[in-house]
Design brief:
peptidyl-prolyl cis-trans isomerase activity, 12 strands, Cyclophilin, ten-stranded antiparallel sheet, globular, 234 residues, 4 helices, binds 2-acetamido-2-deoxy-beta-D-glucopyranose, alpha+beta
Length: 234
Amino acid sequence: MMMAGGRTEDSGGWQRVFLLAVVFCTARFCHAEIGSREDAFVGYSEKSYKKTVFPAPRHGNEFLIFSTRFGDIRVELLPESSPNAVKYMKSLVTQRLMDGCSFYRAEPAGPTIDEGRDSIRPGYALVQGGLYSCGRQETKNLHVETAVNNTKGAVSLITGTSEFFFNLEAHPEWDGSFSVFGKVVDIDSWNVLRRIVALPTRQEAHSSGTILRMLQSPVPFKTRLELPTPIQGS
Ligand SMILES: *[C@@H]1O[C@H](CO)[C@@H](O)[C@H](O)[C@H]1NC(C)=O
């Protein structure tokens, strides 16, 4: 909207600052579409992710890409440290077993109370998907590969299953229990995960007694494998 002329320089300057702030906010940082639950995810800000993110991929590793309605999540695969888990995940893609599957569980990081209990616990800070969501889940007894820890951005196979999850915070308590087969290495992928973990969930008891936060509307994905663009001069 154009401003009427004839204002003093002072007020014009103030308006420019205000307008700049609005444009900056809209363009970059203010994820208003995430809604009020954003407040619970302070730990997932772009800034905090950039501080903890893995270094950029350097090994020419293949990527497993999940395309969702919020954008792509690119996972750098780690065949050197987790050969069996990577081979299994790739087989799910190439055999098209992942077709029509979804992310179905989203656990925020902030303090939470499970229904029917009265103690506060930290959220599990993860987004989970796999063949369960399309009725093809299977028992897969791969031995755990422990060369990579469950750091923020690491993607882990749930031992004995065809399900996997993204660590939205570091989970040292799970090191040695799950094979980390890949990692998120770019901010756009991270922001897709932030969108998913902000979606509404309902609580559901797992047979183990764990209360799960299941997405009210699971987020379907398509998968593909992609080799990185060769680095110039290499
Ligand atoms: C994983 O975590 C353990 C315990 O904190 C540490 O000793 C080990 O060096 C870590 N491994 C890697 C590959 O960073």
